[in-house]
Amino acid sequence: MEELRLGTVEAQFADIIWTSEPVGSGELVRICEKKLGWKKSTTYTMLKRLCERGIFQNEKGVVTSLMTKAEFEAAQSEKFVEETFEGSLPAFLAAFTSRKKLSKKEIDEIRQMIDAFGEEE
């Protein structure tokens, strides 16, 4: 996959596909015209761009995702931690919590996640 970042407009378009899929390309054009004010050519240009990035596919006029929104966000997060914190999740958490204190509920949720992943090993 080439690029895991989406600009604001790309993210709006991706959300339309994720919430509408499978969606015919003609119907996608109509949705984008209504929600984004786009012309047919704009929709197809954006679709082609995101298909080339490996996020969506357009097979026989039906647009579907190659990854769910959750999978995309997870991959995007992994890439951010890799690029910014040399892949260290503890370094990311240290940086994050140095400016934003976690609530007790957030700490408990993180502990539960860690415990669940620890049990899988």
Overview of the molecule:
The chain has helices at residues 8-20, 25-36, 40-52, 69-85, 89-99, 104-120, and strands at 23-24, 56-59, 62-65. It is mainly α. It has a three-stranded antiparallel β-sheet. A hairpin with a 2-residue loop joins strand 2 and strand 3. The longest helix is centred in the middle third of the chain and has 17 residues, at 69-85. 10% of the residues are buried.
Q: Which class best fits the helix and strand makeup?
A: mainly alpha
Number of helices: 6
Percent range of helical residues: 55-70%
Beta-strand content: 5-15%
The CATH level-2 architecture of the largest domain is identified as Orthogonal Bundle
The CATH C-level class name of the largest domain: Mainly Alpha
Number of strand segments: 3
**What is the residue-mean pLDDT, rounded to a whole number?**
92
Counting structural domains, the number is 2
- Uncertain regions: pLDDT < 50 for 5+ in a row? none
Helices and strands, in order, run as HEHHEEHHH
- The outline comes out as elongated
Layout of strands and helices, then pairs:
Elements: H1 8-20, E1 23-24, H2 25-36, H3 40-52, E2 56-59, E3 62-65, H4 69-85, H5 89-99, H6 104-120
Antiparallel strand pairs: 1-3, 2-3
In short:
This protein is mostly helical and 121 residues long.
Name a few traits of the molecule:
6 helices; 2 domains; 121 residues; single chain; mainly alpha; Arc Repressor Mutant, subunit A; three-stranded antiparallel β-sheet
